[in-house]
């Protein structure tokens, strides 16, 4: 074989090898193409949804936010609670911990810089910023001033991984007004007390997602949000509260706290015809916009929760029970000597003096304990307790508020004579202020008792009514005639009796003062030297529109209900009748009870000479004389003078004909 043939053979082999290589490459490329094609098909079909979700997660981030809570309004549509947009601060600790350029801050450094502006302590901030997570809250729904300050600090100090987001915050435009009744909302948008808690399921917004476009570091781009403020899609609540009357009640409590410095106080004002609560206020108080700063005692709605002995304010109810049961009559007389023996106990009048022969009118008007004991024993414990239960005592009223107390009554089958006697004068039992208002609502409403309520209606977002509360009659504890008798006597007490400090010129209001020892919070018995002064009233007598209870818990200094509570009733109702346009009764009608009992100035004889026997002085009747005449006589007799009111004397303690020790004080009430 020549050289040329050998060369051709070599080239053929080389071509063959090249072809094989090309074939292998082509085969490999073909297989790779097939695999790639299959993979692409798989990606586009089987795994498409999963990959789309991953891609979205890298470019967008979801933030859960709460849509706004429904509004809380008063009976006239005035806003009591509303949601507004506020800034919240969150952190991505992974960004702070992965900082490599040296320009950022460590968790410890950031915590030190942020601590002055946040509501959590520095060590807690550092702990949160050190967590192995990409999201932690640092502060929620902050004020704009705090937001601006934090924004500057974060920018100036180059603190990485911190971002602000809009959230809904509950705002109470009237601050402390009706705070315990309305309640407040926590950072998680759950109601924590009051109406906010009771109706949380109805007015709390749904949790919704707010999608933000982010960069590769999960930082929102241009504060992008598909919805910055979600529409209010929740129900709103309209309360029975009248903001104007509520404000008057709050002012009354402020005056009590300032002048008498009690541990606490409460006021309730209710419409006796419907049971609608028009005002409910309690002290101490707090601002629900900043509830975290308040003492927990301030959260307590004393009008609903607290139990206390009603004392003399309970007497009209027990008297009405005796009248309705037929065990006592309006004209029946009782001889009061100042004290009465019941088993091994002696019960005395508040001033230890007797008033002689009296009827039911005087027993209630001058709060004669011995007379009420006689009425109670004559009626019996079982009957008194049954009427107390008819009035709603010993059980909750069912008002739409948390923590309502039930009260305490005697077991009628185990009542002793002393139990019956003390119950008749409002001792030995425990009631809530709301129960007292419900009961006297029946006295004011011709014997018909209405259930107290504070929720007038719940409205849908479109304005239609979702649920409306209708007034509910819950009993007829006494007849209309007994209601008339008790109301007339209570009106007389304000006009010329112990409730004179509550008298409103030109109007006939009914009332009863009360003073009781304070129950011992640490156990049974009473707290030494501690008292509760109270006043219950309603009116106007001709057509009662308001029932009012004022309870003052352990005031400093004077503590009688006539001194600490009755004047507040007068102040409040004077404002209310003026603002609400309630016309006064005629001057003659308004003062008829007083004028009938007073002698004309020109016709009355001078006071008798001072009659001193040893170290005692015989008191004359001061009724019908003015304060100057009474003061001159008492000074001449060496006695102290405690005047109450202005005008002509209508009541005195001790009573006329009593011998008193030299240097004693004499209290005289005056009225025009």
From TrEMBL:
Its main location: membrane. One of its GO terms (molecular function) is penicillin binding. Pfam families: PASTA, PBP_dimer, Transpeptidase. Keywords: Membrane. GO terms for cellular component: plasma membrane. Residues 613-672 form the PASTA domain. The keyword Transmembrane does not apply. It is found in: Membrane. The keyword Membrane applies. SMART domains: PASTA (SM00740). GO terms for biological process: cell wall organization. Belongs to the transpeptidase family. This is Penicillin-binding protein, transpeptidase domain protein. It comes from Megasphaera micronuciformis F0359.
């Amino acid at each position: 074989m020549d050289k040329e043939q050998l060369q051709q053979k070599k080239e053929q082999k080389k071509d063959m090898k090249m072809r094989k290589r090309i074939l292998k490459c082509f085969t490999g490329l073909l297989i790779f193409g097939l695999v790639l094609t299959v993979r692409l098909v798989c990606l586009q079909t089987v795994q498409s949804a999963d990959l789309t979700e991953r891609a979205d997660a890298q470019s967008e981030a979801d933030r859960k936010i709460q849509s706004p809570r429904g509004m809380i309004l008063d009976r006239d549509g005035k806003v009591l609670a509303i949601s507004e947009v506020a800034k919240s601060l969150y952190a991505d600790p992974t960004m702070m911990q992965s900082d490599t350029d040296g320009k950022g801050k460590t968790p410890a450094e950031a915590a030190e810089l942020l601590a002055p502006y946040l509501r959590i302590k520095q060590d807690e901030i550092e702990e949160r910023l050190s967590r192995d997570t990409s999201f932690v809250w640092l502060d929620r729904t902050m004020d704009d001033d705090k937001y601006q300050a934090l924004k500057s600090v974060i920018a100036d100090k180059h603190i990485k991984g911190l971002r602000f987001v809009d959230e809904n915050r509950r705002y109470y435009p009237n601050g402390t007004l009706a705070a315990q009744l309305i309640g407040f909302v926590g950072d998680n948008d759950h109601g924590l007390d009051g109406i906010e808690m009771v109706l949380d399921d109805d007015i709390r917004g749904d949790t919704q997602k707010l999608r933000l476009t982010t960069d590769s570091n999960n930082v929102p781009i241009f504060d992008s949000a598909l919805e910055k403020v979600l529409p209010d899609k929740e129900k709103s609540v309209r309360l029975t509260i009248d903001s104007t009357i509520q404000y008057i009640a709050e002012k009354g409590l402020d005056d009590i706290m300032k002048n008498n410095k009690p541990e606490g106080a409460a006021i309730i004002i209710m419409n006796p015809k419907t049971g609608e609560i028009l005002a409910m206020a309690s002290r101490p108080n707090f601002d629900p916009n900043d509830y975290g700063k308040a003492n927990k005692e301030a959260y307590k709605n004393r009008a609903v929760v607290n139990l206390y002995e009603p004392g003399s304010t309970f007497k009209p109810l027990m008297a009405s029970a005796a009248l309705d049961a037929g065990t006592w009559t309006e004209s029946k007389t009782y001889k009061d000597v100042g004290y009465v023996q019941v088993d091994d106990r002696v019960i005395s009048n508040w001033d230890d003096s007797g008033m002689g022969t009296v009827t039911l009118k005087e027993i209630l008007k001058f709060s004669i304990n011995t007379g009420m004991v006689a009425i109670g024993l004559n009626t019996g414990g079982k009957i008194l307790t049954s009427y107390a239960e008819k009035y709603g005592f010993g059980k909750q009223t069912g008002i739409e508020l948390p923590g309502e107390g039930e009260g305490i009554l005697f077991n009628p089958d185990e009542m002793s004579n002393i139990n019956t006697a003390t119950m008749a004068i409002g001792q030995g039992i425990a009631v809530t202020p709301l129960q007292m208002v419900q009961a006297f609502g029946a006295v004011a409403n011709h014997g018909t008792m209405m259930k107290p309520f504070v929720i007038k209606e719940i409205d849908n977002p479109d304005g239609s009514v979702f649920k409306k509360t209708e007034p509910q009659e819950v009993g007829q504890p006494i007849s209309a005639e007994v209601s008339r008798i008790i109301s007339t006597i209570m009106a007389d007490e304000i006009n010329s009796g112990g409730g004179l400090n509550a008298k409103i010129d030109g109007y006939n209001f009914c009332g009863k003062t009360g003073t009781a020892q304070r129950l011992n919070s640490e156990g049974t018995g009473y707290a030494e030297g501690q008292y509760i002064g109270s006043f219950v009233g309603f009116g106007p007598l001709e057509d009662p529109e308001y029932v009012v209870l004022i309870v003052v818990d352990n005031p400093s200094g004077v503590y009688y209900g006539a001194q600490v509570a009755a004047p507040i009733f007068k102040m409040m109702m004077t404002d209310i009748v003026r603002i609400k346009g309630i016309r006064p009764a005629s001057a003659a009608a308004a003062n008829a009870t007083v004028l009938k009992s007073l002698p004309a100035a020109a016709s009355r004889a001078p006071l008798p000479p001072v009659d001193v026997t040893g170290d005692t002085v015989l008191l004359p009747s001061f009724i019908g004389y003015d304060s100057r005449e009474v003061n001159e006589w008492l000074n001449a007799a060496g006695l102290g003078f405690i005047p109450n009111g202005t005008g002509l004397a209508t009541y005195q303690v001790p009573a006329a004909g009593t011998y008193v020790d030299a240097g004693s004080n004499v209290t005289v009430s005056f009225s025009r």
